[in-house]
Design a protein that fits this description.
mainly alpha; Rhomboid-like fold; 69% helix; 0% strand; globular
Length: 186
């Protein structure tokens, strides 16, 4: 008889916690997202300000937002967690969350940032670098993915009137590229 395996602990835990955060957000009519699961300009004396720099990637506005982020995360994440190990994978998520959150609060904006799309785009770029065999090589897949991805984000940033932070996607992609290049040299 086959057994079910918790094959990717960080990926599965992240998806589960994000799902619980979404349920909590629904039950609290958005209060939990404002308090813990989004990042925005706030008082530096508020301890939750620093928590939110990391936890905003767990928050989602609605089920559609959650599923769009988690489908990609659950497809790409397990391969990368297996390749780099759970601890390293968690560190990549934390760095991406911190960098995207910090840049969001430093730039002029009156909006909240939440969701895992910055992490998703970090993983997309990281996955395209993962196949590099020698340090110093730049895989053609990375160049093509980066051109398509950055081109799409710039286009949508200029022409789309939505509530999606294309800058967060680009920053996430840059974090993924940096992590991939760093890890390929190890």
């Amino acid at each position: 008889m086959k057994s079910v395996k918790w094959n990717s602990p960080v990926v599965l835990s992240f998806a589960l916690i994000s799902g619980l955060a979404l349920i909590l957000n629904i039950l609290t009519a958005g209060a939990s997202n404002r308090l813990v699961f989004s990042v925005y300009k706030g008082s530096l004396t508020d301890p939750l300000f620093y928590v939110r720099l990391f936890t905003h990637v767990l928050g989602h506005m609605n089920f559609s937002h959650y599923t769009n982020n988690m489908i990609l995360f659950l497809m790409v994440g397990p391969l990368l967690e297996e390749k780099y190990g759970s601890r390293c994978f968690l560190e990549i998520i934390a760095v991406t969350a911190f960098v995207t959150g910090l840049i969001h609060v430093l730039l002029p904006s009156g909006t909240m940032l939440l969701g895992a799309s910055g992490v998703d785009f970090a993983l997309i770029i990281l996955a395209s670098i993962t196949g590099t065999r020698k340090a110093g090589e730049i895989p053609m897949t990375l160049i093509i993915v980066a051109l398509i991805y950055i081109g799409q984000q710039v286009y949508e940033g200029v022409f789309a009137a939505d509530n999606i932070s294309q800058l967060t996607h680009i920053i996430g992609g840059l974090v993924g590229a940096f992590c991939g290049m760093y890890l390929s040299r190890q």
